[in-house]
Amino acid sequence: MGTGERMRLAIVAAPKAFQGHTGIIQRNAITSWRALGRDVDILLGGDVAGLGSVAAEVRAARLGPIADGVDGPPRVDDLFAKARAATRADLIAYVNSDIMLMPDWLAAVHRAADAFAGQALVIGRRTDLDVEERIDVADPLVRIDLLDRVRRQGSLAACVCKDYFVFHRDAFTHVPAFTLGRAYWDNWMVHDARERGLPVVEITACATAIHQNHDYAHLSGGRLSAYLTSAGARENRRLAGGSRMITGAAATHGMRGSGAIDRVPLSAMAAFATDLPRFVGLTLAVAGAGVTQVVRQATRRTGSVPLPKVVQASGEAPKMPSRKAA
Question: What is the reported pTM?
Fold first, then answer.
């Protein structure tokens, strides 16, 4: 890479099958990544229904099958390894497949990476939004309308909800065999970076990442299963050496709205405490949604009338869109 040349970025993900509402929001997300520009590589792992057509549409490289985690979803370590082998990009961004990224996100990522010569872990918080329809953010007018909708209807998620990580291609070659879509591995990423003295830069003030809300109907225990009770969540916790809740949610540096990057003056515990109301709201919503889903499934088996669908919130309690998720 020559002097002053921008580091190339590759976005990697492992989508679910492109069916129903999941298919709509994943297509929205992945097409938004392509709208960031031709110099962004898109790498899609797995072999799920509809992946081939979407990959062709956005000119994404397919990584092929990814090794399974303990309860089905792909393994993080294998996804990262295949991504490194498939691209020469300096920076790798893992992004959840329901996250739409706006151009300011890419600018903030490059600003943070340049500040530390690529040797940093870049994270940020998402904004939750109900989305049911196809959205073409490549159209500037559509993007303007979407951003206005985010300002009016969106809800900033708790800091424990991490949906993307950007890092140098050689920074995370030692990731344990975590299962995607389950808890704890995201906390481990931040904790591990801090333990190794790698700056963790939080870019939310300058970066728009839109989480399209969805349910967890594919898991018998809903979000409670994904976060706590599933075999994948339990194994992820073991591999992470614990929940890593505090150090796994606190950045060492923050980007201000002006683009300036400052060291976070608070300890990890103090930084976590500043977002405690959102964390408590998320915890209560996850527990309530999990119990409700179990009861609903039981009533279906017995032929009773199902309970009404419960909101799954992951932010401030007053704002509770209909499809909140992690």
Answer: 0.85
